[in-house]
Design brief:
With about 150 residues, the chain is α+β, with helices and mostly antiparallel strands. The chain is built from five helices and five strands, in the order E-H-E-E-H-E-E-H-H-H. The two termini are about 25 Å apart. It has one domain: Alpha-Beta Plaits, CATH 3.30.70. Strand 2 (about 35-40) and strand 3 form a beta hairpin. The chain binds flavin mononucleotide. The site of flavin mononucleotide has 15 residues, from helix 1, strand 3 and helix 2.
Length: about 150
């Protein structure tokens, strides 16, 4: 399974309703591409995780990168992983309170800083991302119906 994570800076204000609409559209499109992942937004910064077939993910990343609503700052391609972490989430928007529910505010800020500054090795960043994904999947395990109802 191929996966990547990127961070970007918003070029316009994003209200919760705009974010939900964006994630809703992404969810529908990603379902058709067998891509799963999540999107978070905090203080004008996006962090998105995408997993799926390499070609599908790279093509989507190209589209996303050309979207004028944000500017991609950094993309990290993750090493091949044995499985999908998020089999049910074609694109789940995680609000700050969702992140808080799994005590991930701290980890996310940490990760963004590390991605931004290059102080930490890629391995360290990947390790943190794995921790985030594992915590997400455990926490939401008993809440399998994603925010978006199936089509
Ligand atoms: C932060 C961010 C994340 C996005 N994530 C996705 C996504 O996961 N899947 C998707 O299809 N579009 C996503 N989009 C929207 C795409 O950039 C693009 O607008 C959409 O695919 C429509 O493309 P089109 O106008 O070429 O049809 C995202 C946009 C932003 C700003």
């Amino acid at each position: 399974m191929y996966a990547l994570v990127y961070i970007s800076k918003a070029n316009q204000p994003f209200e919760p309703s705009t974010l939900h609409a964006l994630a809703d559209q992404a969810n529908r499109r990603n379902r058709l591409l067998s891509i799963t992942g999540f999107l978070t937004y905090k203080k004008g910064q996006f962090l998105q995780y995408l997993e799926g077939k390499e070609k599908a993910v790279d093509n989507l990343m190209n589209t996303i990168q050309n979207d004028p609503r944000h500017t991609v700052v950094k993309i990290i391609n993750l090493p091949d992983q044995p499985q999908r972490y998020l089999s049910e989430w074609h694109m789940r928007y995680l609000s700050v309170s969702d992140l808080g529910a799994v005590s991930l505010d701290d980890l996310l800020v940490d990760t963004l800083n590390k991605l931004d500054t290059d102080i930490y090795s890629k391995e360290k960043v990947l390790e943190i991302l794995r921790r985030i994904l594992v915590r997400f999947s455990r926490y939401f395990e008993d809440k399998p119906t994603s925010f978006f109802p199936p089509l």
